[in-house]
Design a protein that fits this description.
Layout lengths: L5 H8 L1 H9 L1 H17 L27 H4 L9 E16 L2 E8 L8 E4 L3 E8 L8 E2 L18 E7 L4 E6 L5 H6 L3 E7 L8 E12 L2 E8 L5 H4 L2 E3 L4 E8 L6 E6 L4 E5 L8 E3 L1 E5 L3 E7 L4 E6 L3 H4 L5 E5 L1
Parallel strand pairs: 1-4, 3-8, 9-12, 11-19
Antiparallel strand pairs: 1-2, 4-6, 5-7, 7-8, 9-10, 12-17, 13-16, 13-18, 14-15, 14-17, 18-19
The structure holds copper (II) ion.
The site of copper (II) ion has 5 residues, from loops.
Length: 328
């Protein structure tokens, strides 16, 4: 096992990372103010800093508390029937932890790619473009016609249209399926499709948490993150209402690692494996997922306070995957 401090990562990245950090100093001062206000609002002592638990990775300094709002909360899709979705593969350098720049292969410029959402039975017409000089494609989990399974490589500059009838109701990742698969996924080509049942799930505050890792200087999973940014939810806890139901759409997209897990402190949760079915399969405080496995979790945090979450493989937690729910 190897622990990486941020200093280690910066040294290995060399002056390039430091120069970009310098350029962001003005913005980062403002983000620090925002961070301080946010900590006070959710009841965190100003003395607490990301990393006190032992995490080696802070989020990028320019990221404020709202930087991942659009990723943490799944989209609300009110229309039924047919959705036309544009999805473009592009290469992009992303700052996945403070000063750690990762040459990502992305769907639409982000890692994870956009969260898609539909109701069971809706038709998704996905217009896929490959704007890179390598073959890629788009393969969905869940149920669909085998002709729409998305395993055929789409050449550089190429396009494809996939049409799937969303189902079954549950949580289904999508990812690139071009060989070598580990590389195409670990570089960032993955995202989530939430398929709602025709009778909606009970009202709850909804949160997406996707666990994945980033290779740095030849070390797979040197940085580990929820929703693509290491340390983010440690610095900026996910705010929920005490006493109100919370639903987590949880997925494990780690490569080079047989399992990933999610542990919630101070409360238990109900688990719906793959998000399928109206009744939970069991209740626990640690759920372990194989590669590309996922679950819907439901819980209520009964009293105000901070509830930590992290994978219970601590070496993964300490590389950037510690976070908090702040019940207010
Ligand atoms: Cu690919």
């Amino acid at each position: 096992m190897r622990r990486w401090s941020r200093r280690d990562l910066l040294r290995r990245l060399g002056v390039g990372g430091a120069a970009v950090l310098g350029a962001g100093l003005v913005g980062s001062a403002r983000a620090e103010d925002q961070a301080e206000r946010y900590r006070r609002a959710v009841g965190i002592s100003p003395l607490h800093r990301a990393g006190l638990y032992g995490g080696a990775a802070d989020p990028p300094a320019w990221m404020g508390p709202e930087a991942l709002d659009a990723v943490t909360a799944p989209p609300v899709v009110s229309s039924r029937g047919r959705q036309i979705i544009e999805m473009t593969v592009m290469e992009r350098t992303l700052e996945v932890a403070e000063g750690v720049f990762f040459d990502a292969w992305t769907y639409d410029g982000t890692v994870p790619g956009p969260t898609l959402r539909a109701t069971e039975g809706d038709v998704l017409e996905i217009r896929f473009r490959n704007r890179t000089d390598r073959p890629h494609n788009l393969h969905f989990h869940g149920r669909h016609a085998p002709t729409q399974d998305g395993w055929e490589p789409v050449p550089p500059g190429g396009e494809a249209t996939y049409e799937i009838v969303a189902g079954p109701a549950g949580l289904h990742p999508y990812h690139c399926h071009v060989m070598p698969l580990q590389v195409h996924v670990a570089r960032g080509l993955y995202g989530l499709l939430i398929v709602d049942p025709p009778t909606p799930r009970p009202a709850a505050q909804e949160v997406v948490l996707m666990l994945s890792g980033f290779e740095v200087d030849g070390e797979p999973n040197a940085v580990v993150a929820w929703n693509g940014v290491a340390g983010f939810y440690e610095r900026f806890p996910i705010k929920v209402q005490a006493g109100e139901p919370v639903r987590v759409y949880l997925a494990n997209v780690l490569e080079y690692e047989p399992v990933g897990s999610f542990h919630l402190h101070a409360e238990t949760f109900r688990v719906f494996p793959t998000g399928i079915g109206a009744a939970p399969a069991f209740e626990t405080d640690v759920v372990t997922l194989g590669q590309m496995d996922r679950a819907v979790l439901e819980f209520t945090l009964p009293e105000p306070g901070r509830y930590m979450f992290h994978p219970h493989q601590h070496w993964l937690a300490e590389r950037g995957a510690v976070g908090w729910f702040a019940a207010v």
